[in-house]
Amino acid sequence: MGNKTKRSALLVAAILLLSLVAAGCTSKGNDAGGNSPSPLKDKGSTPDAAKKQEEKGKLKMFMTDSGIPTPDGIKLSDNPFINIVKDYANVDLEIEKPSYQEYKTKFDLLLASGQLPDIVHTMYAADAIKRADEGAFLDLKKYYDQSPLVQKIITPEMMELAKSPSGHYYRIPMAANQSPQGKGLLVRFDLVKKYNNGKWPESVEEWADLMRKIKKAEPDSVVLTNRVNGQRVLSYGGIVFYTMYGAEPYSVRVQDGKVYSTFQLPEYREATELMRQLYEEGVLDKEFAVNDLAKWQDKYVNKNVLMSTDDANQVLPFARNLKQGKTNPNTVTQEIAFAPPLKKYPSVLKDPKYTYSQLSLPINSHGLYISSKTKDRDRAWKVIEGFATEQLREAIFWGKEGETYTAKDGKRSPIVEKLNDPSRSWSLQLALIPGYTAGREVGDATVEQVLGADYTKTILDSMKAVADQAAKAGLGFWNFEQFPKDVADQVDKKGPEANDFISKATVEAIMGKITMRQFDDRVKEFTEKYGFIFDEHTKYITAHKDELRKKGVMEVEW
């Protein structure tokens, strides 16, 4: 529910299978005999163990490409990038990598079969950990404790965040600590220049008036629209005004020590009233509640959509693609940046801090696991270490001097067209430990070449403002929340239903299918049906206030 669901929803789907893993697995994710794995040791290894390490082993790995296509002609198990891992681990590594669309189904079937390969990479942490507790994967803590290579990237604090509710360390997580922080209102600044003399609107009313002005000047524009994102009918451009009111849909707010659904707040109601008005005026897209990804992208790029919400890590790549005309040749004149904070907040808003996005965790849901059925756990660990090598990181993000970058006076400059060639850029999918944002320095350098120093600075300054707000807001409590099983089952069961209720009532109110008085009745009904979810959130933060404060959860004091 709320932000907790939102953060994980990027790559997490519903659990499809609940059958047990095959016989031979025991509880707590240790080996078949219930013992913890024996990590590699520099001292005390037997001669047989040393000989075993000299021999080339054979292992299998199952992984996802995370939506990063592999070009035709690339051999998954034999290419210059994966060979770095294979050479480090002295192993023949056979890789199975389903298409992104097929991955979840095959992963579920693999877990249900119990016939796991030696190493598994997945973003579905909850599913993997459930099976790990039933014996599918090894606890990797002892390996981690003796691996400076992995520790250099994944700190002990990150490992603690990846720890299972049962207290085990099945997962070596993917780092996300290089990712720009925060989320904000991403605006077509060229439209602000054209229709508002380059002056940023300072209030909700001024933003609405600017949309009206653009729509009047260019009637074919779709100035305000939305993308249906899975179960969430409202997202991206459809939530910009809710964000200004500090009441983002499907989220939660901690206010006076109590947790509320944003749907229950007066700020949410006022934002809905404004959306209703803009819908009646024709400023809000009449198809806002049915736009799929393709329609959203077409309107966003080609129909003067003024603003949307997005994470900071998406801004520079998007700006680069616009400037290069990769989305449409006509987009080269489009400029984007995060809008600065409002100077005049809505009077209904309890506190401006509720408009701030929060920090993201330094890890994400991706992780590497070792099967409890592997016959060579030590070498499987070496494969994981191979993904943490600096050699692989350099190959992925920088390539080779003279081929993909130049160096002068200690400063490297990327050769953009070479670095971004699909024959090598696909390798980003192998950044399984440093993370997909670990090449931020080369990304920033690439962007500056395309955008120019001034435009790049404008974007970076706007990103800093968003990051500063996120630092003030801290981490969300839902990153750490753990309910008793009976409570968790109820929350998991009713959470999607509650989101459907929010979507239906909000869309009906915006489109005028129900009155605002009827909307108020829907809020009361929501509280009666689903209020227990937020009561449980409140109980959790009340009971764990000191612990959460130490972890950087600021909102426990809100």
UniProtKB/TrEMBL annotation:
Chain intervals for the UniProt region annotation (Disordered): 28-56
Q: Which domain of life is it from?
A: Bacteria
This protein's record includes keyword Transmembrane? no
- Where does this protein have compositionally biased stretches of type Polar residues? 28-38
Q: Where is the signal peptide?
A: 1-24
Renumbered to this chain, the Basic and acidic residues biased-composition regions fall at 40-56
The record's section on InterPro entries has: Bact_solute-bd_prot1 (IPR050490), SBP (IPR006059)
Keyword terms of this UniProt record: Signal
Name used for this protein in its record: Extracellular solute-binding protein
Q: What is the source species?
A: Paenibacillus hodogayensis
Q: What is the lineage of its organism?
A: Bacteria, Bacillati, Bacillota, Bacilli, Bacillales
